[in-house]
UniProtKB/TrEMBL annotation:
Signal sequence extent: none
One Pfam entry name: Fer2
Lineage of the species this protein comes from: Bacteria, Pseudomonadati, Pseudomonadota, Gammaproteobacteria, Oceanospirillales
Protein name as it appears in the record: Phenoxybenzoate dioxygenase subunit beta
Domain 2Fe-2S ferredoxin-type span(s) in chain numbering: 234-321
Gene that encodes the chain: pobB_2
Alphabetical UniProt keywords: Dioxygenase, Oxidoreductase
Length: 321
């Protein structure tokens, strides 16, 4: 982990703060590409992930923007309570939501704070001279972080704002209309509230968007329509030691690993962030996450150990640990 200080704190919108982070010795931080995030270990010990919301104009600084979520489990509230000068631990940047290609025509769709990973994508595509459209959905300009900045950006001509509280001007985005104009030739990137993403993905699937051109990043798990039924007990095998461990019906794999002093990092516990992603050597997995794509789930080579389980009662999953 890297120790950084809060160098600046700015209110970007109602309930959204932007933090500028940097090392105390003013040295450079690791570089990153659009779509990346960092893990932040807060003073309480909570570990959370936040998207890097701007490309680095100076290698000494990272910027994140965080919404104070009314349903927060403590992370966003603690971030909002940080002050200039406070120290936190961060990871090197990780990227589970990269641009597939800087040269591919792209459609960016943000819902609320989901704008944060998409803003660096727009910067990257603009610098590359790649055609793109950026649709930003929110309640109002007052609650939409960076809306005034984006109206003045070098790619302002590619911005489309949709504010649901202003039906006389922009109003809600017509998802089907926007998607149908780009299905033949663009990559889709969407981020925002879980239900917003799910709605966009459903429309994209109905319109025939190929899965390999649809990219999304959830910040929280959506309400699942799938009934997984009652949990059942199963076993896991640790490949490096041959150890076979029992996972009870009321346990997650990560709980059992921790009880046996086998460390796998975990954060969201909802199958959203990918922190606990683990390679699978053998076994049939019942995937309960929103992180892996349908294709990746079908391949069965990885699983989110915080939430996913064996398909069958008494099944055995061998993990590459």
């Amino acid at each position: 982990m890297i120790e950084v200080a809060v160098l600046n704190k700015v209110e970007e919108a109602a309930a959204v703060v932007r933090l500028v982070l940097g090392k105390a010795n003013d040295s450079a931080l690791p570089p990153f590409e659009a779509g990346a995030h960092i893990d932040i270990k807060l003073p309480s010990g909570l570990l959370r992930q936040y998207s890097l919301c701007r490309l680095q104009s100076d290698p000494r600084y990272y910027e994140i923007a965080v919404l104070k979520d009314p349903q927060s489990r403590g992370g966003s509230e603690e971030v909002h309570d940080l002050s200039i000068g406070d120290l936190v631990q961060i990871s090197e940047p990780k990227n589970h939501f990269p641009l597939r290609s800087k040269e591919a025509k792209s459609l960016l769709i943000a819902g609320g704070i989901g704008v944060t990973p998409l803003l660096p994508m727009a910067q990257t595509l603009q610098c590359a001279g790649t055609p793109f459209e950026f649709h930003y959905c929110g309640k109002s300009p007052r609650t939409a972080a960076f809306s005034s900045v984006l109206k003045q950006a070098s790619f302002a001509d590619k911005m489309h704002f949709h504010f649901s509280s202003e039906p006389q001007s922009s109003g809600r985005m017509d998802i089907n209309s926007v998607l149908s104009q780009h299905v033949a030739d663009s990559d889709l990137y969407v981020c925002g509230p879980a239900e917003f993403i799910s709605s966009v993905l459903e429309h994209a699937e109905a319109l025939g968007w190929p899965e390999e051109r649809v990219h999304r990043e959830f910040f929280a798990a959506p309400a699942m329509d799938v009934d997984h039924g009652d949990n059942h007990a199963f076993q896991i095998k640790v490949a490096s030691t041959g150890q076979v461990l029992d996972v009870a019906a009321n346990q997650a794999i990560t709980d059992v690993l921790e009880d046996n002093a086998i460390f796998v990092p975990v954060s969201c516990c909802e199958g959203v962030c990918g922190t606990c992603l683990t390679d699978v050597i053998s076994g049939d997995v019942e995937h309960r996450d929103v992180f892996l794509s349908k294709k990746e789930k079908a391949e069965g080579k990885q699983m989110l150990t915080c939430c996913s389980r064996a398909k069958e009662e008494g099944g055995l999953i061998e993990l590459d640990l």
